[in-house]
Amino acid sequence: MALDLASLIGRKNPPLIGLDISTSDVKLVELSKGADTTFRLERCGSEALPKGAVVDGNIENVEQVADAVRKLLKNTGCSVKNVALAMPASAVITKKIILAGNLSEQALEVQVESEANQYIPFAMDEVSLDFCVIGNAGNSDEDVEVMLAASRKEKIDDRVAIAETVGLQAKIMDIESYAARAAISRLIELQTNAGRDQIFALFQIGAKVTYISILLNGEVIYERDQQFGGNQLTQDIIRNYGLSFEEAEAKKKLGDLPDSYETELLEPFLESASLEVTRAIQFFFTSTPFTRVDQIYLAGGCAVIPGLVDIVAEKTKISASVVSPFKGMDLSSNVSEKLLRSDAPSYLVACGLAMRRFG
Predict the structure, then answer these.
(1) What is the reported pLDDT for 272?
(2) DSSP letters of 273-306?
(3) DSSP symbol at 265
(4) Burial of 2 (0-12, 13-18, 19+ CB in 10 A)
(5) What does the longest C-alpha to C-alpha distance in the chain come to?
(6) Gap between the Cα atoms of 260 and 280, Å rounded
(7) Where are the strands (E) in 217-294, listed by range?
(8) What is the pairing mode between strands 219-226 and 210-216?
(9) CB neighbours of residue 313 within 10 Å
(10) In a 10 Å sphere around its CB, with 0-12 CB exposed, 13-18 middle and 19+ buried, how is residue 296 labelled?
(11) How far is residue 94's CA from residue 184's CA, in Å, rounded to a whole number?
(12) CB atoms < 10 A from the CB of 34, how many?
């Protein structure tokens, strides 16, 4: 789903930042590309959001989010004005449809809108609708497969308003799961034989929701979400140690908690997280023709919790690793390698959005 890109026409890869607005924080990534096509990470950073500023993907307080973005731009020294944003998958309706391949662009737009009425439970004047032609339909050379995407205008407007408030121009509106997929696909291509015929399962463990995407040869063969995330551990810390939400989040990240934390809270959480991953894999096996997964990738803020990747590999009996979306990239002097070591897995969506600069 894209906003007006007219101002970009005629300019080759103008600067563009990826801005990921999540429940807990906002993240920024700026990429460039060298002559040898290697990505270069120019800037990245994050800024925490007050609790309640974003709830279940909905912007509840535009000013609070805008303030966090403003601080983030200042702290990273970013001066780029064009921005790619994303909607949570739960806020977007997507559907693949088959249309005649000989339609003009205008006729295609009319046909898409007509077809969209069947799948969108809102009045068409309340939604933003976009589409792209994927390619020829598999069973017909005369038809094309088209992906349509629609979201409530008010939800898109909230994100655009945040960008405009801080002096940015929203050029692209993506879907978070699609942006993450773009970033993970680059990593898969770095594998032996570019990961051909291997099945990769991506688990993005967020604050409240875990998003699962399973890919084979560049295609998504399964996706779903589960109501499980890092806030479960944060709430346990709050209850057990009498801390505020902000204090609990900070101490969880730094590991600055009492000695009893590991056995009383962390280990049960790791057990629960590994159980969620195992269940998701089993559900994939029972609801599709596939019977194997070759590699599990963990992403999101929880991915770096000590011991998580090990227990997931142990429980699932599948090779597991923590995603580093900047693997293989050159780093500018603006980027802290220490930050990347601890926080890189949480930048998957922002990285995928920044990659939109290059198509």
Answers:
(1) 96
(2) HHHHHHHHHHHHHHHSS-----EEEEESGGGGST
(3) I
(4) middle
(5) 68
(6) 30
(7) 219-226
(8) antiparallel
(9) 17
(10) buried
(11) 20
(12) 10
Residue 38 is predicted with a pLDDT of 87
Give me 279's structure tokens: 């269940």
pLDDT of 3: 41
**At a CB cut-off of 8 Å and minimum separation 6, what does 243 contact?**
237, 251
Cβ distance 20 to 27 under 8 Å? yes
Which amino acid would we find at residue 189?
E
- pLDDT mean values, one per 10 residues, the chain (359 residues): 36 84 94 84 94 90 97 96 94 86 83 83 84 78 84 92 96 93 94 94 92 94 92 94 89 87 95 96 97 96 91 97 93 85 91 93
Closest CA to 69 of 19, 30, 22, 29: 19
**Partners of 96 in the β-ladder:** 147
Cβ atoms of residues 73 and 88 within 8 Å:
no
What is the structure's pLDDT at 326?
A: 95
The two three-digit tokens of residue 221, written as one number:
């063969």
